[in-house]
Amino acid sequence: MITAAQRFNRTMLLASAPFVGMIVWIAFVSFTIQAPGIDYAAGGGASTLPNMAEAAAPTLDGLEDAAVIAKEISASMKKVSELYTKTNASMSAIMTTAKAQVSRPALIYDKRITHRLGTVSDSVTSTKLTAQLFRIKAQNFSGYALKVKLKAAGAMDMTLGKDTFGGSETTLAAVKRTGAIAGVNAGGFADSKGKRYPLSTTVVDGQYVSGFEASFNDLFFVGLNDRMELIGGKFSSKDQLDKLKPQFGASFVPVLRKNGVNLTIPDKWRTSPLRAPRTIVANYKDDQLLFLVIDGRNENGSSGATLEEIQLLLTRYGAIDAYNLDGGGSSTLVFKGNVVNSPSDGRMRPLATNFLFFK
């Protein structure tokens, strides 16, 4: 198939060919003026001058013809230049239109999933990311949704508490310390000897914090790879996870949704607790991320959302994969320097890991 660029180049070649030929012809044709011999010794000096003018006339006529040809070539080349300029402008317009058509399906998809989330209550847009905040109001609970489109490396990261293995800090403290625009609590943790350690397999800056631990029971690993894509699931070996090139991530339980299908929730997590504050991370087919932070008064099972209700929300929102992060008093969402949800402890809980977003 001949492309538009190839068609344009052929047109320019055909248009230029006659003028190239003329230039070559002029280069090989020489115009010389030769004065006829004047025999002053024979005494005919004065009578020979008219003969010189007559002899030079054909040569001068040739020069005049060449000048006319040169003017015609110059005028024609000017027209070719104008044609090139117009054609180049047309090609640019065609490319702009083509790019718009290519991006249109993505814009339509984004508009559809955004509409499902409701009205944007706040947002941040930069060269690195677009983050949109939505309110969630259901029959039995309320909370927030954060939809994030990552555009460049460094737009999202995960940090250890105070950047120390065994350290802890609130999500707000982590946001302020790093200069992030937003933050969400990440994986689970275990306390030991006054320190708070991240639960199971944890990756920061592409490195395993305390080594790899094969998935057991309902534990999973979830994080981002080197292409800013959400990766997650159960992994039986380090090599299996390494193939996905994790850059950062944490562990918790259970997996809620895979490939657009809700998974069966293990009995243990179905009722223990029944209702609670929740934090969820999910993705869309265009690799945008969705975080849900659901509020509840406490962790005794009387307030908040069930995991089945979260799955219903994820189905309504059109999410592809989804993972349940640490909830209860850990559930915290910070946006533009403010804690937008209501942590159930009545104050923010110091955590071992937090997801952070940078503009």
Describe how the helices and strands are arranged.
Layout: H1 4-28, H2 45-117, E1 120-125, E2 129-137, E3 142-150, E4 156-160, H3 171-178, E5 182-185, E6 189-192, E7 195-198, E8 203-204, E9 207-208, E10 220-225, E11 230-233, H4 238-242, E12 246-252, E13 255-258, E14 261-262, H5 267-271, E15 278-283, E16 289-294, H6 307-317, E17 322-325, E18 333-335, E19 338-339, E20 353-357
Antiparallel strand pairs: 1-2, 2-3, 3-16, 4-20, 5-18, 5-20, 6-7, 8-9, 10-11, 10-12, 13-14, 13-17, 15-16, 15-17, 18-19
Gyration radius over CA: 38 Å
User: Which structural category do the helix and sheet elements fall into?
Assistant: alpha+beta
What order do the helices and strands follow? HHEEEEHEEEEEEEHEEEHEEHEEEE
Q: Indicate the multimeric state.
A: single chain
Secondary structure: helix percent: 25-40%
Q: How many extended strands?
A: 20
Question: Segments where pLDDT lies below 50 for 5+ residues?
Answer: 38-47
Q: Determine the number of helices (DSSP H or I, runs of at least 4 residues).
A: 6
Mean pLDDT: 86
